[in-house]
Amino acid sequence: LNGWIRLRNTPPKERKIAIILYGFPPNVGATGTAALLNVPDSLQGLLEQLKTQGYDLGPAVGPDGKVDGEAIVAALKVLVQDPLVRAGPKYMRSAIVNAAREESARSLVSGPALNINSTWLRHALKDDPNLIRAQGITSKRLRRALRPILASKVEKGWGELEQVNFIGQSSEGEFVVQGVQLGNVWIGVQPLLGLEGDPMRLLFERDLTPHPQYFAFYEWLRTGLGAQACVHFGMHGTVEWLPGSPLGNTGLTWPDRLLGDIPNVYIYAANNPSESILAKRRGYGTLVSHNVPPYARAGLYKELALLRDLIGEYRSEPDKNQALKPAIVEKVRLVGLFHDCPWEG
Question: What would the DSSP string read from start to end of 238-259?
Fold first, then answer.
């Protein structure tokens, strides 16, 4: 409640806001997505509204208030690459500059090349040298923030904080927190909940704690960025699902410890009240519901529909329908499936 009062009493131009996107499941291009929500367009709309309401979005956003949501999400996809995280915060701005020049980020670190074809981003990088903000949180700082009781719990599950093999950790041992800074508004990606290959691990191990970089992320939002409010962007994040009391938070419950007294605005689909209640109860979320977009089964079209019918007819009686095989192979060639599924048959 005190956080909301402070936020209300702070002029919009001075308010510091953290917008948190998601990247689940990991390593499948899901960064900047949410269920039933167009995140880039919605993010762009939110930022442009903040500009009209007097929030400081820095020199990258001109008087017209125009923002490129797709470019921001694309930049975040580059920033969360494992090779770039390992290289450390000092390389991150250069990687985005290269990507915006349609040059490969591979020139700095090994890994997949990502290009960002955005005139807005190229101008934003030129106008605002602080557009890309990346911090390295040392294990000493993290230990001090955790305090002895929570530090011992984290180390019991994940090992000594001083070791260098954690998720989201640079080769120099710092826990990396990175994002796009538009004046007083910072946009980043929530850390993974578990491990690669077991991304939902924390949901099923009641005694396990968030990994160190997860805690470092929210610790930096509170004490480094000084966020006066955070916006969890879409359905849904993971902080409210962390281990701890299922019915009510205590001072040592992880959602309470991570969020502190930061007001938490949670954008949630209106058709999922059961999980949104969890965001309210354990994440102290103030829900902003959005309608579910109308959709219907797309089905197949043109040559793909014909291919489906041919395969179905062949499968009904393979021995009698051998004559259909050349037609099926030719149809596969016509629709270009050989490019995705090479076949030497």
Answer: SGGGSSS-SSS--TTSHHHHHH
